Amino acid sequence: MLQSLINWLEDLGPRFYRAFFEADRWMSYLQGLVVTFEITIASIAMGLVLGLVVAMVRTAHDQQRPGRRNPLLGAVNLVCKVYTTVIRGTPMMVQILIWAFVIFKGERNKVMVGMIGMGVNAGAYISEIIRGGLMSVDSGQSEAGRSLGLGYVDTMRFIIIPQAFKNILPSMGNELVTLFKDTSLVNAIGAAEMTYYAKRIGDKTYDYMPPLIGIACIYLVFVIILTWLQGKLERRLRQSDRR
Amino acid sequence: MIDVKHLSKSFGDHLVLDDISEHIHPGEKVVVIGPSGSGKSTFLRCLNLLETPTAGTITFDGMEITDPKADINAVRRQMGMVFQHFNLFPNMTIRKNITLAPVRTRLMKQDEADEAATALLRRVGLEEKADAYPAQLSGGQQQRIAIVRALAMKPKVMLFDEPTSALDPEMVGEVLEVMKELAREGMTMVVVTHEMGFAREVGTRVLFMDGGNILEQDEPHAFFDHPREQRTIDFLSKVL
Ligand SMILES: Nc1ncnc2c1ncn2[C@@H]1O[C@H](COP(=O)(O)OP(=O)(O)OP(=O)(O)O)[C@@H](O)[C@H]1O
Ligand SMILES: [Mg+2]
């Protein structure tokens, strides 16, 4: 019993060596990590743009005065609502598979397909985060702006959005962390990010533990760094609040 | 100046204003009183269309503002409003609070607006607070700023919704003082308040609202000394 534990521990070094250093394998992880970052950044950027547009449409729609409803805005709003409902109501894994094997069936660039799938997914969540942030600003603020004769856009731009920003920031940070971790899902469609390489190296060496535990640690380290940065930024903002 | 005809407002199937017709003349100081939930705020907020009336028309300076085609922002520029909870913009300095609307609506250039802000602040004795943020001020100071913020748009009428109700008692006086001065200068004012002393001293007319109706109205001395309706008598006996 004790002997087998000792043997296992003794083996660990060579096993990790094989998974990371033999045949310069660490370069594959690094390459994968870069792609992981690329997918994260592309999808958060896409998610931000989509989310902003959808949130704007939906709040503008909800804030129309009764009797002055714009039918076009109503139609666009309906599209946005379907979008957020479908995306948030189905598993991300299924969505990614649909993008790769149904919508972009013949596409070779799987990384791009993964970016689109994740970006569209992020957009739905981010739109809800932004919408919630806008709604969290006291309605007296927009009433004060409007009663001064400011238009909807100016009221949003100078009064509501700057105040919503602070409320949005924490959830946005969480969304970024989630996206970063969920990029590992796109290995299922053959997009060569970090998890994909870890699995391939496992296949080759017939030893999955070292590469998988290894990348788990890498993900964890970056999540800890991101969370720390987020906390720092929030503290800074809160300080400027108390001026 | 403001002509209200058959104004009704419901929230869902809850009728809050029930066919109100009223006329507010230039220079009048109309004080609206009444029990909680009687529709005072809703009436005031309908006047600048913060609430959309369910039925009826409101005409301001000859323009029907309840018409869907009316330029509602242009109308609101001429009607100042002061809220119970001040609603200053916490993300801006006091100066920016005051100058934002005049500059964005092209009423003034930034430097003109800054000058106007300084003059207005001096008038309420808060000149040195121009670069402070709202959170650094007391309630009474914030409400005085909220009043001059509205005045910066050079409105023709000022609407007040319980401007002193959220204040500590020792700060009520300083806000009422600003309002009294405004009244002396001839501003047309519609004031929802529980300050009966103010109503008596400054008001030119008192409206008593109950259950979505204007139950009774009169010149303040007659109103307070000889109320006619039983509901008015009951209400006054509670607040006086
Ligand atoms: N946005 C709203 N949605 C639904 N009901 C509302 C809304 N605003 C007001 N009401 C209802 O309308 C009625 C009148 O409200 P209003 O605020 O005008 O009363 P008030 O006379 O100003 O009372 P208070 O002295 O408490 O301020 C209340 O019963 C209130 O619950
Ligand atoms: Mg009220």
How would you describe this structure to a colleague?
Chain A is an all-alpha fold and 243 residues long. Chain A has nine helices and no strands. Chain A has helices at residues 2-20, 26-62, 71-89, 92-103, 110-135, 139-147, 152-182, 194-205, 209-241. In chain A, helix 2 runs antiparallel to helix 3, helix 2 (26-62) packs antiparallel against helix 8 and helix 5 crosses helix 7. The model of chain A has no long low-confidence stretch (mean pLDDT 92). With 240 residues, chain B is an alpha/beta fold. Chain B is built from nine helices and ten strands. Chain B has helices at 40-47, 72-77, 94-104, 110-123, 139-151, 169-184, 196-202, 220-225, 230-239, and strands at 2-11, 14-24, 29-33, 55-60, 63-64, 79-82, 157-161, 188-192, 205-210, 213-218. Chain B has a six-stranded mixed sheet with strand order 6-7-8-3-9-10, with helices on both faces. In chain B, strands 2-1-4-5 form a four-stranded antiparallel sheet, with helices on one face. In chain B, helix 3 (94-104) packs across helix 4 (110-123). The relative contact order of chain B is 0.17. The mean pLDDT of chain B is 95. The interface between A and B is medium-sized, with 24 and 32 residues. The complex binds adenosine-5'-triphosphate (ATP) and magnesium ion. Magnesium ion (MG) is lined by residues 40-41, 161-162 of chain B. The site of adenosine-5'-triphosphate has 11 residues of chain B, from strand 2 and helix 1.
